[in-house]
Structures are given as C-alpha cells and as structure tokens.
Design a protein that fits this description.
heterodimer; A: 337 residues; alpha/beta; Metallo-beta-lactamase, Chain A; Rossmann fold; 2 domains; seven-stranded mixed sheet; six-stranded mixed sheet; 26% strand; disordered C terminus; B: 529 residues; alpha+beta; DNA ligase i, domain 1; D-amino Acid Aminotransferase, Chain A, domain 1; OB fold (Dihydrolipoamide Acetyltransferase, E2P); 3 domains; seven-stranded antiparallel sheet; 20 helices; globular; binds zinc ion
Chain lengths: 337, 529
C-alpha cells in the first residue's frame, strides 16, 4: 500500500489519516498553499504553514479549525511525521514531507526556483517519492531572469506614461501580483490595485512582506486622469466595465504561457510578459534531481512528456490524476468580486 | 538583425494601425538603406524561396538542443509553429550580434543555397548561438521562406511617405514593378525627385469598396456609370519602349502566360497602360473561370489549350496615354480615349471594352443585376462620373455591388488545428451535405466565425472527437453551419461531384439539426441557376 494515494476526495494518507489539498470535504486537510485549486472550503480541520494562515483566513473565511506549523518543524499525525518546507511559489506555500517508518514522501504543491522577494525560497528536501507539479513540463518553457522581465515591464510602463496612457497588468491576486509589485519602479508613476489584489496586498504587508505603496482603485470615478498610472488587476477583470473607466489603457498579461506567441496574441492584450510562479522546465528537472527520489509522481500540467523524460533517465515516474490546475489565464473568477 | 527583430515584435504586438506605421517609420529612420530595402522586401511579402528543408532544420535544432526527437514533437504541437518551437528550444545564446539585416540576408541566408550540408549546418548553428529568441524566430522564418508579418503594403507605404515627406501615391508607384533589394533602390524610393526609369513599372491598382445595402445612398444615378463586375484576373497591359508587360494584381509579371496579350501589346501605341481583366473568352462571351484555372495550371501552353481557352483583355480604364500619366483625367475622358483605342483594335479580337450598362434608376439596375449569374458576372461595378483613377482601396468613387453569394447548410464532420496564431485551436473545418442518406464531404472552410464561436467550436470538437488521424479529428455529425461561396462547378475529382469557389462560413446555425442540412441534389440545382 503506497503512503499516499488519490481517493475521491484528494491525495489521501491512510497511515496519517489526512488528505493533502483535498477537493472534497474531509476530516483533516493539509494545505500546501492558498490558491483555489489547492485550498478549498468544506473540510473539518486544516493544517498549513504559518505564513499561509492569513491567506487561508481571507480566502476561506474564519468558521473552521485552522492549525499552523513553522517551516521545518516536525509534527506527528497518526502514524506519520509531517513537516512543511518552503516551495517558493507564493507567500506561505509549502512542500509537505510525510515520513512513515523510514520512508519519505514529499508533495510539492506548486513551486518555483526563481527568485521572489515575497516568499521564502524553494528548499530541496530529500525523499524516496516526490509528487511534483508539471504545469510547464516542456523544454520550450524556460524563464528569463525576473530582473529582465521587470525591466521590460518598466520600460513599457514608462513609454505608456510618455504617450499619456494608463498601463494595466493582469496577474493572479495571490502571489503573482505582489511579486510584480516588487518589480515595479515607483519612480515612474503611481501604482493602483484592483480591490481583490489590494486585499491580498494587505495580508502580505501584515505578514511582513514589503511592497511599494499602492492605492485601491475602488470604483474609478469618471473624469479622473489615469495617464501614467500603473493598475494591477486580476485576469478576470479583462473586458469588464470596470476596466473601461481608465481612459486610454495599454494592457499586459503576466503569465508563463505568454512565452508562446499564439497564446500571447489570443489574449488580445497589448503585451505579454513571461512571468510565472511555477517552475520552468530546467527548474522542474533541477528540483526533481535535488530530491534524490527514485520514484516521481507527476500531477497537473504536461504530465506525459515529463513522465516519459524521467523514465528515459531511469526514474520510476508515473502520472498522478488530480484536480489541481496549474496556471490558468482566465480563472479565479471569485477573485474579481 | 536586432533592429529588424525588434520591429517585427513591435508590429506583432499591436493591432493599431498608427502604432504600426510609427514603428515602421522609426525603423526606416534608424537603419541604413541597405537594411531598409531588405526590410521592405520582406515586409511587403516578397519571399525568398525556402533555402533549407524543414526536415534538416529540425534535425539540427534537436542536436543543438540536446533533446530527443519525441519531445521536439510535443513542443512543436504545443507551439504550433516550427520556427518558433526551434527558437524557444535552442540553448541560450553565447554571444550577441550587432550585424545588420543586410549582412544576415546577403552573407548568411542567400549563400545557403550553394553550400554543402555541413557548411549549412555549421553556419546556421553559429547563427543560432548569436541570436536571442526573437531574432532566431525571425531568422528561422526567413530560412524557411515563411516570414509573414501583419502589415499591409499600404502601411509600409505610409511609413515611407512619412519618412521621405513624399505622398503615398508617389511611394506606391515607385514600389511597383521589378526591383532588387539594393540600397540604390531605397534611395530612389525616398528621393525628392527621381527619374522613374523602370519601363515595366505598373500603376497601383484602384480597388473598389464593397457596397453594403442599397445603391440609392449613392445619390443621383446619372452621376454614375455601371459596368458588369467580371471575374477573371485583374491586370495591367503596358506598352513602353517597344516592349509589352502584363502585370497581374498580385504584382507578378505574367506576360509570358498570355501570348494573346503580348501580341495585343505590340499593336498599342508607345506609352500606353490599360487596366482590365484577363478573361477566358469565346464567341463574344466569357467561359467559366474553371477553364481559366485549367490554363493557369499548365507549365507549357500548347496550341490545344490556347485554342480551347483563348483570353481577351476586358478593358476597364486607361492609366497612361502617349507616355503621360492620365490617372487624374476625369473618368469619362479616360473611357472615351479607351473606347477609341479598343475600337481601332477591334479586328484583333484581343481587347473588349467593359461596356457601361445604361440604366435610368437604381431600381432598373437592381432588376438588371438579376442577370448576373446567367452572364457569369458577380454583379456591378459603380464608378462616379468625373472621378480620377485612385490608388488602392478607397471609399467613395468606385463601388462593387455584388450579388449575394450562394449559401448552403452543411454539417461539420472533420476539424483540425489552424496555423499561426490559431495553431492550438481547431479552426480548419470540413463540411458535408447529404447524399442518399450519407454525409459526403463537400467543402473546407477556415474563416467566418467570431473568436468566441471559434472557442466554442474548439471545445465542442475536443469533447466530440470520434476518431483521430494525425491532426485531423472526425467529430460527431451534429453542428450545422451555413456556408457561403462565390461560384460552383462540376468536379469529377471531388467526392460530391462539385467544387465551390471561396467557401466561407456565413454563420453557425445553432437552430438547425444535422438532418436539416442540404442535400447534394439542392446544390446541383444551383449549377443551373
Ligand atoms: Zn498555486
Ligand atoms: Zn496548482
């Protein structure tokens, strides 16, 4: 019997009596991070890494039992020992390590290796079995250094300002937006955030992450001059009436998918910036290698190519069917409310 | 190369015309003529034939990237574009290049043809190592002869007009005809005054705008001339310096394909340019366009095909007369001169005037329009009395008033991914109609749906695939579309026995069930209309 397996509610650990990132309602849920495909409402009790607490409270409300744990601390749950380790994905994101009679499994949740001042960096954890995401599991997905991406975002913002336009970038309210904020150059102009993002900024600031000064747009008033401003908005705000209040706007999407020209063009945005909070192909391989795991279970994303690649490298690799979603371009509708 | 790749990116990133013109003008101002002229060459869609077989390029890219072939295949299908897949897969560059576009084209691209496999491999491998992803993408497109960018020639002309301070008319005229991408040409193009020395150079065609709705909006019918709208090959026949040049609207010199017109040219006075339509013609009237296609398809024109499908120039307009550019003359004056010329050459049987159709009222003309199909024309051209011969597609003076296209309801049976930016969406469809209780493929169509509809159909196709062969998916015969097309003819080569011209999707008939689709019988009836 494997230490973890997928049942109808999610990734189930029988020896520990808990689920990791369940999509059904379960008695005990261990949560890797606050994105909506990983942290869902409806379970009786939750355990997450300490910096994730405020995020889960904001997203899931307060009417449930939530226990937190410091990164690296060991906790006995049922017959197993669990610990949470930074995944570098968003604030509070964790890989969950599960140990049972000397056998170690690590569930990555979502992760990235690239630098991000808004969360603790990814920490490789040795294990026998590694459950990895594979959102960008093809070698065409390779990220440029974040500084390079931010330079082009700032250049674009500056050019828009000089043409009297407002700049608007679209990114996830949790994680992507705050990471983007740290890369913006506040010298260029004022920074505004959509309400859904400003609420999350608040959580980040309360958690001690330093972000540049931002103002919530609220319901933008007619006649206000937005020329030269930068507005950060969730992808769901695209094409909304809210968006049309800002006068002449140049739009940019922040996503790993923007690496592909066809996808970039289909977004009908003025610009696509390749910025992802998931690992790129070299990142996936590096992370998997660093675990020393012989067995790799691959979830959401380009599972088949990564499984085949790893198998050809002599690993015992298999696909694992889950309901995690990776990086979507237009989801997270709930964030737009 | 960097500047050109930046230009490509700038053009690719915006759909706004003014931004494109600005990017083009900035580029032309920044680079030397030797680069600008190559840029024009590629931007207006002149191609260099594919220099390297795709197969070889892929093999080299796989070697450079150090990946197995199967994963290249996965990447290609995720990206949907070969040049781009290669650009994204190659290892990061180890150097940067500040070499010019001219260098890359003349010293690295064109010589590929003479080089051995090893030399090609080496040169391309080094090129990749010096270029970033955007430059590689453009470079790969150039190598494979597939470079395309979303600008029309008229935008390039506008940018050059801005840079040179000349009018767009002057620039577009200078850009026509045969020219080689050399700096001298660029200098002539933007020079304040140049002797236009190219004797073959045609004039830019004046193109009509489609008239939507009722011509009554055009005002007094007596201010308009109506001609039938013919469906042949729009062309110019030019006689200068004792030579004849026949240009098609695609701006190809097609003189040799039409010996009849070359002979006609020899009879034209020196310094003449006529705008007209090359038509397959027999017994005083047009042959079906399919006959022309038979003729166009031949490499060698034997006496048999020349006798079976003779052509005439159906003359529309006179652009140059006695060596003088007469495009500013009023329409009626140009036509009168043209009429006299046609009459004087009537005995040759090689030129016919596109006669004006007399009409008293717009209602009369609408009535006459019903004869279009029988006459094998597409409707009417309406031209304003007194108008000059303009450049390009301009509203106001020339209108095409076409008859409604044919339309048929058919069932979607196959779908496959499109190309370019639609590569990851199912956008190429095959449609069928009923024949004796069976659905037979009838036409393929790509365009006509809105982006939302495309996304919906795409999702539907993925859920309703019955079978896959390569990229093609057979789907449940469930969705009905109205297909519009321009012409129809018998075709023993097609399973339906029928071929249509310019099929496109008129709309998605979500209100119809597959059993409501048309039968091959109803379509055959259209043949007789
Ligand atoms: Zn996530
Ligand atoms: Zn995820």
């Amino acid at each position: 019997m494997p230490l973890l397996r997928v049942d109808q509610n999610g990734l189930w650990c029988e020896a520990g009596g808990f689920h990791i990132d369940p999509w059904g309602s379960v008695p005990k849920a261990l949560i890797t991070h606050g994105h909506s495909d990983h942290a869902r409402i409806g379970s009786s009790s939750y355990l997450c890494a300490a910096p994730s607490e405020r995020i889960l409270r904001l997203r899931l409300g307060s009417e449930f039992q939530l226990q937190t744990i410091t990164y690296g601390d060991r906790l006995t749950v049922g017959d197993v020992i669990v610990s949470f380790h930074p995944a570098g994905h968003v604030l509070g994101s964790a890989q969950i390590r599960v140990e049972h009679r000397g056998e170690v499994w690590v569930v990555s949740g979502d992760y990235k290796l690239a630098a991000d001042p808004t969360c603790a960096p990814f920490e490789p954890v040795r294990c026998n079995t590694f459950v990895t995401e594979s959102t960008f599991g093809l070698p065409i997905y390779r990220w440029h250094a974040p500084e390079t991406v931010f330079t082009s975002i700032n250049d674009w913002w500056r050019a828009n300002r000089d043409h009297g336009r407002c700049s608007m970038i679209f990114g996830y309210p949790l994680g992507k937006s705050q990471r983007a904020l740290t890369g913006l150059d506040p010298e260029i102009g004022p920074i505004y955030c959509h309400g859904a993002i400003e609420r999350m900024n608040q959580v980040y600031r309360e958690s001690g992450v330093s972000l540049p000064a931002t103002t919530a747009t609220g319901e933008p008033k007619r006649g206000q001059n937005w020329a030269g401003a930068m507005v950060v908005a969730p992808p769901s705000a695209q094409g909304s009436t809210w968006m049309r209040r800002f006068g002449e706007v140049s739009t940019g999407m922040l996503s790993g998918w923007m690496r592909i020209r066809g996808t970039r063009r289909r977004q009908s945005m003025d610009r696509g910036f390749v910025l992802s909070d998931h690992a790129d192909w070299p990142g996936l391989l590096q992370a998997i290698g660093a675990t020393g795991a012989d067995c790799v279970l691959v979830t959401h994303g380009y599972r088949a190519p990564l499984v085949r690649w790893l198998s050809e490298q002599g690993k015992d690799a298999r696909a694992l069917e889950t309901r995690f979603e990776g990086e979507a371009l237009e989801n997270e509708a709930e964030a737009a409310e | 190369m960097k500047a050109f790749a930046d230009l490509y990116t700038a053009l690719d990133e915006t759909t706004k015309t003014n931004a494109k013109v600005e990017a083009l003008a900035n580029y032309f101002r920044a680079v030397p003529p030797e680069d600008a002229v190559w840029a024009i060459h590629f931007l207006i869609g002149r191609r260099i034939k594919r220099l390297i077989e795709t197969r070889k390029l892929v093999a080299w890219a796989i070697e450079e990237a150090g990946i197995p072939e199967w994963i290249f295949g996965e990447c290609y299908s995720a990206v949907g574009d070969l040049a781009e897949a290669i650009a994204l897969l190659l290892p990061a560059p180890i150097a940067t290049t500040d070499k010019s576009l001219r260098y890359w084209v003349e010293e690295r691209l064109l010589p590929l043809r003479q080089w051995s496999d090893e030399q090609q491999r080496e040169s391309i491998g080094f090129a990749w190592l010096e270029m970033d992803e955007r430059q590689r993408f453009v470079w790969n497109k150039l190598i494979t002869g597939e470079f395309r960018v979303g600008v029309s020639q008229s935008l390039v002309v506008r940018a050059l007009a801005e840079v040179s301070g000349l009018s767009t008319e002057v620039i577009s005229h200078r850009m026509m005809g045969d020219w080689i991408p050399a700096p001298t040409f660029y200098n002539q193009l933007i020079a304040k005054d140049t002797e236009d020395t190219d004797v073959s150079r045609p004039y830019p065609f004046f193109l009509a705008y489609p008239l939507e709705g009722d011509p009554a909006g055009l005002g007094d019918p007596s201010e308009w001339i109506a001609e039938w709208k013919w469906d042949g090959i729009r062309s110019q026949v030019i006689r200068r310096k004792w030579e004849t040049f026949v240009w098609s609207r695609g701006e190809d010199l097609v003189t040799e394909r039409f010996p009849e017109l070359e002979a006609l040219g020899a009879l034209l006075p020196e310094g003449t340019a006529i705008d007209g339509e090359i038509m397959p013609w027999q017994g005083g009237g047009p042959l079906p366009f399919a006959q022309m296609q038979r003729r166009i398809g031949r490499k060698v024109l034997g006496p048999k095909i020349l006798a079976e499908v003779p052509v005439v120039l159906l003359a529309y307009d006179l652009l140059e007369w006695q060596g003088e550019d007469v495009r500013e003359w009023p329409l009626e004056r140009r036509r009168a001169q043209l009429d006299a010329l046609v009459t004087s050459l009537a005995s040759t049987g090689r030129m016919v005037l596109s006669a004006s159709v007399p009409f008293g009222s717009w209602e009369d003309l609408a009535e006459l329009r019903h004869q279009s199909r029988e006459r094998r024309v597409e409707g009417f051209m309406l031209k304003r009395v007194g108008s000059p011969y303009r450049v390009g597609r301009k509203r106001g003076d020339w209108w095409k008033w076409k008859i409604q296209p044919y339309s048929v309801d058919c069932v979607l049976i196959y779908a496959q991914p499109g190309h370019g930016r639609r590569a990851s969406l199912m956008t190429d469809y095959t449609f069928a109609v009923w024949d004796d209780g069976e659905l037979v493929p009838f036409a393929k169509a790509y365009s006509g749906l809105t982006n939302e509809e495309i996304a919906k159909v795409d999702a539907w196709v993925r859920r309703n695939t019955v079978e896959k062969f390569g990229p093609v998916r057979r789907v449940k015969p469930e969705l009905v579309f109205e297909l519009a097309f321009e012409g129809i003819q018998n075709s023993p080569r097609h399973r339906s026995g029928i071929a249509v011209r310019f099929p496109r999707i008129a709309r998605w008939r979500e209100d119809k069930k597959p059993e409501d689709a048309d039968t091959i019988g109803t379509i055959r009836n259209l043949l007789t209309i």
